[in-house]
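We modelled the chain as a single entity of 348 amino acids. Its sequence is:
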Amino acid sequence: MGVTSEVLTLSPSRVARTVAVNGYKVHRCRSNFEIASTPFSVSAFLRFRQLAQWADIIHYHYPYPFADVLHFATQVNKPSLITYHSDIIKQKLLLKLYTPLMHKFLKSVDRIVSTSPNYFITSGILSRYEHKTEVIPIGLDKSGYHAAPAERVKFWRERFGHRFFLFIGVIRYYKGLHILIEAARNSNFPIVVVGAGPVEDELKAHAKSAGVENIHFLGFQPEEDKQALLELSYAAIFPSHLRSEAFGISLLEGAMHGKPLISSEIGTGTSFINIDKVTGLVVPPSDPAAFRQAMDFLWSNPEEASTMGKNAENRYWKLFTAGQMAQSYVELYHKLLAQKSELAELRF
């Protein structure tokens, strides 16, 4: 679409300074230390200044406090925008210390992009910047999801059949899989969990102690196996119960593949992807009984489940393609450049 994009990122080890990834330049600086899961890099200051001087627009991703530091320390005066992925949820104490810098940063950029209207409405922080916030949903490119090899489809079909619930994601505290385990008590439908993460062992122990044997933890799986499981699955389930789940990419993958969805109402992008009783079912968060009821309904009503899956795929094509996302950002970039040109003319 006529935009040259280059990426600045940090790496925990010594690596090649600039590499090509799918035709894009990625500039990597070595991180020197980390605070609350945020890496910091001394060499990034000079590299960021050099790249910012070359660029027409600076596009930040939030939350990432080190980007705020770079923004002010280098005093770069270029049109800028933030893709606002999530409020800071977990680090409440550090948030109090960070808040003055955060608001200074949010005030200084030209635009803020929320990834869903739901998150924009429910974020107390974004409500303060309504005048310069707009919504651009995250999009996926279905053409990049190649059909799974026949032998992998056969392998997983022989193991799970063609009717099972599927969860895909990194296994973190906010994914709500402990709720799914409780919801699955005394059920007999297969539930497949794809992904690894910090609380994986804890959840496996929970399932074992609860006597839940129909949840199958597969750990990390290669793309071809993930694709095979997506194609075979009956429905996509997403029990995330905290606002740390700001959008839900794997929920969108389920919609893109025409699967009925089950998610929880947490005021984020999950309920922009999944519309209750249209594309699937939306239940209260942290409510195993409600989640189980939703699973029972889809399992017992295949025609309704099929209709919801078709609606989910139609909604993907209407709102969530990568092309639509890219076009929206290109239009926003042009607006920012036009505003810069107008200001320059006024000063002249």
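As a brief sanity check on the tokenised model: The two ends are 31 Å apart (CA to CA). The first strand starts at residue 6 and ends at 11.
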